[in-house]
């Protein structure tokens, strides 16, 4: 067993370390349930981030959606800030790719629909993800798609150092040009993810439109979900009905 964090969360084992902190599997000593714990230290735990953590605690822990890993608690532990989320049983998309088990074309459409639905819920709540990549998409043992790191960007963007770290790994071209991040940047990241998964398949057109250089030309998360859910339904997936794939120009944002 590892250390006890926040006087409540007993670390079981580490999951990964990245530019935005360390993530562990832990056990909630009050409930006995497994959780994931991300720790923020150093400049990512600066006073502005700590203030936002406490001010936004209710808002972030209240967000619930079938395609998001719920934020369960936001707290502190000595020199660290702690984001506690539900533990999602399954494998990250990155793990699937590294172990030689890439999703087939039908599963790609379902992944696109699930991620887009999760982003739509976040954007509706006034939140950006800003860390969408194969490591933050989990495919559960029952075939569901869950997006992790729901609260991370909203907290660390309270400081210039946090914003710089988020921007450094973001693929959207407008961010490199100095624009402030918006929902369209998350959609560009989804387009990059789908491009790498769908060289052929039912959402390759959507992947291309999501990577439009002009953020105003990209589909919104809701539109992306509609298209990918329709593709998933046509291929026998479970993402639900929607409109067919677009042809011609991308829809106007809205």
TrEMBL record:
Protein name: non-specific serine/threonine protein kinase
Enzyme class: transferase
Catalysed reactions listed for this entry: L-threonyl-[protein] + ATP = O-phospho-L-threonyl-[protein] + ADP + H(+); L-seryl-[protein] + ATP = O-phospho-L-seryl-[protein] + ADP + H(+)
This protein's UniProt keywords: ATP-binding, Kinase, Nucleotide-binding, Serine/threonine-protein kinase, Transferase
Example of a GO MF term: kinase activity
Region (Disordered): 206-254
Pfam families, per the entry: Pkinase
TM annotation in the entry: none
């Amino acid at each position: 067993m590892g250390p006890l964090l926040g006087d409540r969360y007993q670390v079981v084992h580490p999951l990964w370390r990245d530019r935005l902190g360390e993530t562990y599997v832990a056990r909630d000593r009050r409930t006995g349930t497994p959780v994931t714990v991300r720790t923020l230290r150093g400049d990512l735990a600066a006073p502005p981030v700590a203030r936002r953590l406490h001010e936004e605690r209710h808002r972030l822990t209240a967000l619930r959606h079938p395609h998001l890993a719920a934020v369960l608690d936001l707290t502190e532990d000595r020199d660290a800030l702690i984001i506690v989320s539900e533990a999602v049983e399954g494998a990250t998309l990155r793990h699937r790719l590294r172990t030689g088990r890439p999703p087939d074309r039908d599963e790609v459409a379902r992944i696109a629909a699930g991620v887009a639905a999760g982003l739509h819920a976040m954007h509706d709540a006034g939140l950006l993800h800003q860390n969408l990549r194969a490591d933050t998409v989990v495919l559960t043992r029952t075939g569901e798609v869950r997006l992790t790191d729901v609260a991370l960007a909203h907290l660390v963007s309270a400081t210039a150092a946090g914003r710089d770290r988020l921007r450094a790994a973001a693929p959207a071209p407008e961010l490199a040009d100095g624009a402030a991040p918006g929902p369209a940047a998350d959609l560009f990241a989804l387009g990059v993810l789908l491009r790498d998964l769908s060289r052929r398949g039912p959402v390759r057109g959507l992947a291309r439109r999501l990577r439009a250089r002009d953020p105003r030309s990209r589909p919104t998360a809701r539109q992306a979900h509609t298209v990918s859910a329709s593709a998933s339904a046509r291929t026998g997936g479970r993402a639900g009905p929607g409109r067919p794939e677009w042809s011609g120009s991308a829809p106007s944002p809205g």
